[in-house]
Amino acid sequence: MADEELIPVFDRLVGSDSIERNRLGEKSLLPETAYQVVHDESLLDGNARLNLATFVTTWMDDHANRLYAESYDKNMIDKDEYPSTASVEEHCWRILADLWHAPSVENAIGCSTTGSSEACMLGGLAFKRRWQHARRAAGKSTEKPNLIMSSAVQVCWEKFCNYFDVEARYVPVSEEHPVLDGHDLEKYVDENTIGVVVIMGQTYIGAYEPVQKVADALDAIQASTGLDIPIHVDGASGAMIAPFLQPELEWDFRVPRVHSISTSAHKYGAVYPGLGWVVWRDLDALPDDLIFRVSYLGGSMPTFALNFSRPGAQVLLQYYAFLRLGHEGFRAMQGGSRAVAEHLSSKIAEMGPFKLRSTGSDIPVFAWELDSSVERNWNLYHLSDRLRMRGWLVPTYPMPPDLEEILVQRVVVRADFSRDMADKLLNDIAAEVDYLEKLESPMPVEGQTPHFAH
Question: Residues bearing N6-(pyridoxal phosphate)lysine (predicted)?
Fold first, then answer.
């Protein structure tokens, strides 16, 4: 082993056929060799900051990176061993309860999760258990629960319904109703409905679903049928945008029918993956038999999660972001991202071949399609491929069911995507569109598949 240290790192494996990939090797490697192999494996990945498909945070400042390195080893579930981290978790969800206008922060309850998908599933489980208790108390069947959502919902809700035996009832989107807005909701609600999911920042086009309009529709349904249906707000992105950029918009616990809200801290919460949060408006919204009690500072602390051991570092990073930014900082950061998104969308709309589906005025996300009135020798998949050669990852995918014949491209603007970078992207899009528009014969379409899964 000592002699091998004298060999340059890239020459150490010249005599062997290859590194074992799918089984444990017989011999050890020097740490520098193993590092270089793994490092080189990742070289063919795309550049995270040029990935305009992802909502996930791709940059934090040096102080956050230092804090992260200092807390890699903390296990979030071990609240007795790491009581200060457990206390920070509670500070964070109470900050969110206040931000989202819980009637009483003291009577609210929440927790951290590994992302908004777990947070959504906890919200759905609370709906299901609460419905089951009410049905049993009334002497009624608890079979065949259903959950109502838009057909443009994120896949985590499909997973929830599949994993926890709940019928998914999808309200289709259309050109007239591009988001769930309460239209025809009475056709989907019945006595087995456990709740309605409303999305603050639909992943397809970045638009808010109007929580208050959906609540108004459910009020009308209750007036005519007696059915009292709660709302879960999937605020994966918008729950960390609306409080700062649209503070007058009533989408949160100011709407009495909203029982729970989830968000992705690793999206517009400004934290590295993976961290999410879910908060319930009060203790009545979360059935007590779903809560476990763990030892904490000589007492008992409520916890409710699907995962057990998981990193505590991101929880500390969230608290850092809250302290570092405050209302002022979050307004500036989210407002800057929205300004870049609206700049990009307006310039793309001027390019000629494109028609916007959204502008980035809700969350800093927008989508566009090709103008179908003109026959072309290329489609958006071809443009995505051309941009990928320049380093940009701009996804192309079909719209949800009933609109799936429409292909769109989408850009997610994050805090580390500057106006200068946006202008570089615009120049590259313009150059590639110019190349594609000059084609004299059609580009091949074999093997084209969506670049992003919702």
Answer: 267
pLDDT band at 129 (very low <50, low <70, confident <90, very high): very high
Spatial distance between the Cα atoms of 167 and 164, rounded to a whole number of angstroms:
9
Do residues 402 and 175 lie in contact, with contact meaning Cβ atoms separated by under 8 Å? no
- No. of H helices and E strands in the chain? 10, 13
Could you give the C-alpha distances from 294 to 80, 299, 307, in angstroms and in order?
8, 8, 14
- Of the candidates 321, 342, 359, which is a domain's last residue? 321
Report the domain count for the chain.
Answer: 3
Give the pLDDT confidence score for residue 22 in this predicted structure.
Answer: 84
Rounded to whole angstroms, how far apart are CA atoms 256 and 185?
A: 18
Helix (H, G, I), strand (E, B) or coil at 254: coil
Q: Which of 277, 299, 321 is the last residue of a domain?
A: 321
For residue 294, list its beta bridge partners.
301
The answer to whether residue 113 sits within a structural domain is yes
Tokens representing residue 337 in the block: 């991202």
Dist. CA 11–CA 394, nearest whole Å: 37
Has residue 32 been placed in a domain? yes
Element (H, E) at 366: strand 365-370
| pLDDT score recorded for residue 94 | 98
- Contact (Cβ atoms closer than 8 angstroms) between residue 195 and residue 260: no
Q: Are 218 and 258 in contact (CB under 8 A)?
A: no
Tell me the two tokens of residue 276. Answer: 């999410």
Using DSSP, state whether 375 is helix, strand or coil: coil
Query: Which structural domain range is residue 40 located in?
Result: 4-45
**Are both 417 and 300 inside the same structural domain?**
no
Task: Give the CB-side neighbour count of residue 214, counting CA atoms within 13 A.
Answer: 32
Distance CA 66, CA 254 (A): 38
Rounded Cα distance, 400 and 167, in Å: 19
β 146-150/167-171 pair status: parallel
Which tens digits make up the pLDDT trace of 288-328?
A: 999 877 665 555 666 788 888 888 999 999 999 999 999 99
Name residue 160's amino acid: F
Dihedrals phi, psi of 216, to nearest 5 degrees = -60, -40
Distance, CA of 38 to CA of 335 (rounded, Å): 38
Chain CA centroid to CA 368, Å:
20
Amino acid at site 315: V
CB 285 within 8 Å of CB 40: no
Rama region for 239: left / alpha / beta (φ>0; ψ in -120 to 50; rest): alpha
Tokens representing 12 are 């150490």
